[in-house]
Design brief:
Layout (H helix, E strand, L loop, with lengths): L5 E4 L3 H12 L4 E4 L7 H5 L15 H8 L14 H16 L3 E2 L2 E8 L15 E7 L4 E6 L1 E4 L27 E2 L8 H7 L3 E5 L3 H11 L6 E5 L18 H15 L4 E3 L4 E5 L2 E4 L4 E2 L4 E4 L28 H4 L14 H4 L6 E3 L13 H15 L3 H5 L41
Parallel strand pairs: 1-2, 1-7, 2-3, 7-16, 8-15, 9-10, 9-15, 10-11
Antiparallel strand pairs: 4-5, 5-6, 12-13, 13-14
Bound molecules: flavin-adenine dinucleotide.
Length: 431
């Protein structure tokens, strides 16, 4: 099997980093990307400025690969937009990987060769088969020694419905609902929202980003913020205690917009129905005269094409079972995620890994640097360097949020008290 490639699904930041790490280890990656170019998901949120500086957005092995190509590394302290992350780093990296990246190639299934998930025999000895469909409709089965699924979750946003299913009428109202942070610098997009009553649903960083943008259009544009949880609680994040200052500042700006009365907050609203221009909660509460709804309620992984593999996924988060307790917003008391690698990301199915955004399942707060460390560890393990694979090499920035993320009615319920605002701590990558 050592002659076979390691198939990496997705040419996003983590898939490309995986390829760079594998190349450095002398292994053969084959990155399969469904879009026509690298960084396709990131390019869709081109207008959003990241809260991570460049220093945390470039994978170390990718940097070393790019260094030999004449690539100019952007200044560490700058904060790129999605468009800049894609054009100044991801696409040059994909170019440097050359023919190891195939575009217009969607992975539609992965299985153990000749075996569905029920068959025991040969799971350790047979390679994996990767079924792909190209943009021209042609299909192929590729053989792989390992598969790293770094396909992200961008394509499967959560719906508006408070129970995780589309609200009644949500699909029918599709022309007045968006699941993306709007780019208000685009005239057409601005014309859609300006002067209307816009409802933003969700409590993560994307929702905060949208609120800050819409608040600039108030009061001529009416902005209502729908929260499922019973109180705003820690939704604005850690502010000054956040070790990523730009992430903390985003929450502070959103809070200021609410305090200034530019955003109306509705808490404890679990949307059950969309009735014409009204949103109706499961308790019968109504938000009326709604022109547009922007649903930013997080993402979920698409596991449909992994059905023939034996994955060990947490029943709550759909993340690898050993990773889930580290990232579960129901129980996790610091909003900060501990570094983890191949040990937490392994499954009963040998040599199959979920990495990057997809590895978090439904959990929030994924950082690219977490994904880079995941794939460094996986590549080390595949190269037989178990010692390096198991070494924790990253300290992640504290969010400064204590008491859990408060996913439901009682934001304080998960108070764990483990993160007294810490002294800002330098990010360290030990190599
Ligand atoms: C608006 C926004 C802002 C963010 N800001 C930050 C930040 O400031 N700092 C930070 O560290 N992180 C941030 N993140 C989180 C995270 O780092 C990014 O989402 C990052 O893009 C995740 O990388 P990924 O490679 O796991 O997935 P993605 O970037 O989603 O890449 C997945 C790739 O896989 C491809 N693909 C999907 N399905 C298939 C398939 N079946 N076959 C083949 N290809 C497929 C997609 O086309 C895509 O190119 C942000 C996320 C969002 C949405």
């Amino acid at each position: 099997m050592s002659d076979l490639p390691v198939v990496v699904v997705g040419a996003g930041p983590v898939g490309l980093a995986a390829a760079a790490e594998l190349v450095e280890r002398g292994l053969r990656p084959l990155v399969l990307e469904k879009a026509a170019q690298a960084g396709a998901a990131v390019a869709e949120w081109h207008h959003v400025r990241l809260f991570s500086p460049w220093s945390e957005l470039v994978d170390p092995a990718a940097h070393r690969l790019l260094a030999g190509t004449g690539w100019r590394r952007p200044a560490d302290a700058g904060y790129p937009t999605g468009a800049e992350w894609a054009s100044e780093y991801l696409r040059p990296l994909a170019d440097a990987l050359g023919e190891r990246v195939r575009y217009d190639t969607e992975v539609v299934g992965v299985a153990r060769r000749g075996r569905d998930r029920i068959v025991d025999a040969g799971r350790d000895t047979e390679p994996l088969t990767v079924h792909v469909r190209r943009a021209d409709g042609s299909e192929e089965r590729l053989t792989a020694r390992a598969v790293i699924d770094a396909s992200g979750t961008w394509g499967t946003p959560n719906p508006l419905g408070g129970d995780g299913l589309p609200a009644l009428g949500e699909t029918a109202a599709a022309d007045r609902i968006s699941y993306r942070v709007p780019d208000l610098t685009d005239e057409t997009v601005l014309a859609r929202y300006a002067g209307r009553h816009v409802v933003v649903a969700g409590s993560g960083h994307s929702a905060l980003t949208a609120l800050v943008a819409f608040a600039e259009l108030a009061p001529t544009t009416r902005v209502t913020w729908l929260l499922r949880r019973g109180a705003v609680g820690s939704t604005f994040g850690g502010g000054d205690a956040d070790q990523l200052p730009a992430r903390g500042a985003l929450g502070t700006r959103a809070e200021a917009a609410v305090d200034a009365g530019r955003v109306t907050v509705v808490t404890g609203f679990r949307t059950e129905r969309v009735e014409g221009r009204e949103l109706v909660s499961d308790k019968g509460d109504r938000v009326s005269d709604v022109d547009e709804t922007v649903v930013l309620t997080g993402f979920r992984p698409d596991l449909s094409w992994l059905s023939e593999l034996r994955l060990d996924l947490d029943a709550t988060l759909q993340a690898p079972v050993a990773l889930a307790p580290l990232i579960d917003p129901n129980v996790h008391s610091c909003g900060t995620v501990y570094p983890h690698g191949v040990t937490e990301l392994s499954h009963p199915e040998p040599n199959v890994f979920l990495a990057g955004m997809k590895s978090y399942g439904r959990a929030p707060t994924f950082l690219a640097m977490t994904g880079y460390e995941q794939v460094r560890s996986i590549a080390a393990a595949l190269a037989g360097d178990r010692e390096s694979a198991e070494r924790v090499e990253l300290v992640l920035p504290e969010t400064g949020v204590c008491g859990g993320a408060g996913v439901f009615d009682e934001p304080a319920a998960a108070q764990g008290g483990c993160c007294a605002p810490a002294e800002p701590q330098a990010l360290t990558v030990q190599r």
